[in-house]
Amino acid sequence: MNLTIEDKRIGPEAPAFLIAEVSANHDRDLDQALALVDIAAAAGWDALKLQTYDADSLTIPSDHPSMRIDPVWGHARLYDLYRTAGMPMEFHAPLFARARERGLVPFTSIYDPRDLDFIESLDPAIYKIASFEMTFDDLLIAVAGTGKPLILSTGMADMAEIGHAVEVFTARSTAPLVLLHCCSSYPAPPEQINLAAMETMRAAFGCMVGFSDHTIGALGPIAAAAMGARVIEKHFTNDPGRAGPDHRFSATPEVMAEIAAGVRAVHAMRGSPDKRTTEAEAVNKAAGRRSAFALRDLAPGAVIGPQDFRFVRPAAGIAPNDPQGVRGRRVVRAVPAGHPITPDDLDRVP
After folding, report:
1. Which of these, 114, 173, 171, lies nearest to 144 by C-alpha position?
2. Count of domains in the chain?
3. pLDDT digits over 115-124, tens only?
4. How far apart are the C-alpha atoms of 92 and 123, rounded to whole Å?
5. Is 15 within 8 Å of 232 (Cβ atoms)?
6. Is 3 a domain residue?
7. Which of 247, 270, 293 lies at the terminal end of a domain, its last residue?
8. What is the pLDDT, as a whole number, of residue 71?
């Protein structure tokens, strides 16, 4: 399977498509957000992803106990967190423009079908639906109606939930669907990210798969690329010490560059599924494999016995696994001692 998003190719013939996730790290400051675009481009990433929501897109103001959250997020209530973390709508157009100027594919995660017309006005080539929204059928249906490809994160989901979401989308759209494996913990414990689930999802749903990473550092994305992830997403920041809910677990510019270099190196290392002698191995194959060499001068007409040759390095003569063999063969042209015995030196096998 292959997919082209603007000028970027996603599929087995290309390195993993790298999505730099701004998340809440814009800090509601346009200059800060624009600086993040430049960081993603300089680090060698492919796409810039925003999140399009406000507090009312996600929840309602309420003091119900279920609305209370861990203070690590900087607020006591969900509504207050989303009110301060949401990116102002007026930031979208300049960020899309800067991303395209820097060679990045800009798009966004949509959280509310009511925002679809606004996002469509920005002309994104693809949509993203976050793990927390993958059970929101109305949102899946709305995005399917655009006819555009969808990247769907699957954090917290079991296979039945993923299957339902895939069915809802594919029943209404023939556009490509990419599933991202994800551990929705911030940060995610490395021992719980379960990258092997990518192959389970690929086999079950016939979609390209990738990895939305919330671990600290570069190892998770690079490992995912080695295991066949076609898309990799990562939160990033210019300073993990900044105030704000997402900076603390986001990748630094240095880690972003390390991921990009590592993913591209992994793609080169994965190579082809064909098992063959590579160009780099050819010299050593010739020098290091064994073949038949004469231990004494062999005259035409001689029948070769065990005392006449040995299989030694290099591979200049008949190989030790050649089914036609050397023993019992008749010499048809002289072979001096210390020279390889080649097929042309021996009689033809009937």
Report:
1. 173
2. 2
3. 999 999 999 9
4. 11
5. no
6. no
7. 270
8. 80
Q: What does the pLDDT average to over 315-331?
A: 95
- Of 129, 212, 200, 136, whose CA–CA distance to 168 is shortest? 136
User: φ, ψ for residue 130 (rounded to 5)?
Assistant: -75, 160
pLDDT above 70 for 350 = no
Average pLDDT of the residues in 330-337: 98
Compute φ and ψ for 42, nearest 5 degrees: -65, -30
Structural domain boundaries, residue 75? 8-270
